[in-house]
Amino acid sequence: MYNKTVLDNSLRIMTERLPSRLVSLGIWVEVGSRDEDDRNNGSAHFAEHMFFKGTRLRSAQQIARELDMLGGMSNAFTSSEYTCYYLTVIDDRLTEAVELLADLFLNSTFAPEEIDRERQVILQEIAMVEDTPDDLVHEMFSALYWRGHGLGNPVLGRAEVVSAIDRSSLTEFVVANYRPERIVIAAAGNVDHRSFAELCRDRFGKMPPAGVPLPERRPPSPNSFGAKRIVERPLEQAHTVMGTTGLAADSADRYKHLLLNSILGGNMSSRLFQEIREKRGLAYSVYSYLSNNSDCGYTGIYLGVDPGSWAETLELVHRELAGLRQNGITEEELAGAAEYARGGIYLAAENMEVRMASLAKNEFTFGRYLSIEELTEAIAGVKREEVNELAGMIFAEERLPICVVGPVPAT
Radius of gyration (Cα) for the chain, nearest Å? Predict the structure, then answer.
């Protein structure tokens, strides 16, 4: 059962009661790396780290100990559009979980010595991406595709910017962006909505509403078609990402796009996987994926291939895209993709963290709850001609932007 409460300060609380002894609880803030600029890139992620580094009531060590004593799963993450702090606990520890998260969220001190210590951790995290080519190439592609826009910012931030962030700039970023109208508290599992909402109201209801509206997010205008970036490194594989037009998360065509991606490279029976890996053995890893933001998106393709097969593999990718653009998909492919998507929805629904995350993301994206039944019915209603029309639009541009990390000449 789904329920929603909006506090007087506009903070939203939503729950989905499910038969379980677990409750997954998350505090979601609608702020991420796209809301940063060249002066503060990395602030959203840095702030996420600092919320675990001490409050007026608890030291960093006490926070770590209490998180462990709750006996569940705790974590946080930052993306281009959201920051989330979450816990999954046994239902009889929910009140303690709310108490702890509220203290982190409302009373963190951002002590200068903790900032300096955590800065080194984050710089190591940035270095780790540099040392992981299949992560680095995705970050490079996002920067290339969204160049000139905040969506191209690396979530971890740039090392030179992170090195200069201090307490003043970090707290300024939090005060400006951690506002109740941009916050959703979601819980899924064995949770009573009325008591949970009151628990949250007592702790978060006094957050002051925003005085001045934040500027609306500016949608990007991709201008990277035909662009290329190659970082030559002496690796065994050429890690490659290429991409083209995508859709916003709330697009009316999102289910068609989901099925089209599945057919292209979203699973083991997809065209790219079968043609490049199974038939020709040219790549261990090859797949397509969707990057959907609130107002835009792209369709990406990743390849990890032997440098000697790189040009041949790229030619095969372009051939498959041309086939989709010109000839479309078959009814058999559509039926298989729909069944794959249906299975994925039901499997994900068994995970409390997924259910909790869906509550928050659907609230941010659609302003409402989307049931499993609605999702599966929408997927079942997609027609072959609709997917073919979308394929013609998505893959209309042949000069795809591309990024490579590996031993491929920069030509």
Answer: 23
Direct distance between the N- and C-terminal alpha carbons of the chain, in angstroms, rounded to an integer? 57
Are 387 and 259 contacting, i.e. CB atoms less than 8 angstroms apart? yes
Confirm whether 48 is a catalytic residue.
yes
Token pair 């209490």 in the structure block, residue: 66
Domain 2-204 has CATH 3.30.830.10: yes
Q: Furthest-apart CA pair in the chain: how many Å? A: 64
Token output for 266: 């979203």
Contact 184, 360 (CB under 8 A): yes
Q: Tokens 């065509």 belong to which residue?
A: 253
For the stretch 147-204, pLDDT in tens is 999 999 999 999 999 999 999 999 999 999 999 999 999 999 999 999 999 999 999 9
Cα–Cα distance for residue pair 191/16, rounded to 1 Å: 7
SS3 268: coil
Catalytic site residue from 16, 48, 139, 275: 48
What is the per-residue burial (b if ≥16 Cβ within 10 Å, else e) of 25-55?
bbbbbbbbbbbbeeebbbbbbbbbbbbbbbb
Are the CB atoms for 400 and 227 separated by under 8 Å? no
Contact indicator for 303, 276 with CB cutoff of 8 Å = yes
* Nearby residues of 330 by Cβ (< 8 Å), 6 or more positions away: 384
Range 103-128 average pLDDT: 97
Mean pLDDT over residues 37-50, rounded? 97
Interior angle at CA 298, CA 14 and CA 243, nearest 5: 150
The phi and psi torsions of 39 (rounded to 5 degrees) equal: -85, -25
Handedness of CA 110, 116, 117, 118 (dihedral sign): positive
Helix, strand, or coil (residue 323): helix
Domain formed by 228-405, architecture: 2-Layer Sandwich (3.30)
State the pTM of this model. 0.95
Residue 154 has phi, psi (to 5 degrees) of -70, 135
Give the pLDDT confidence score for residue 411 in this predicted structure.
57
Matching fold, domains 2-204 and 228-405: yes
Per-residue CA distances from 213 to 109, 179, 217, 265 (Å): 26, 10, 12, 41
Would you kindly state where each structural domain of the chain is located, as residue ranges?
2-204, 228-405
Q: How far is CA 384 from the centre of its chain?
A: 29
143-155: burial string, b at 16+ Cβ within 10 Å, e else = bbbbbebbbbbbb
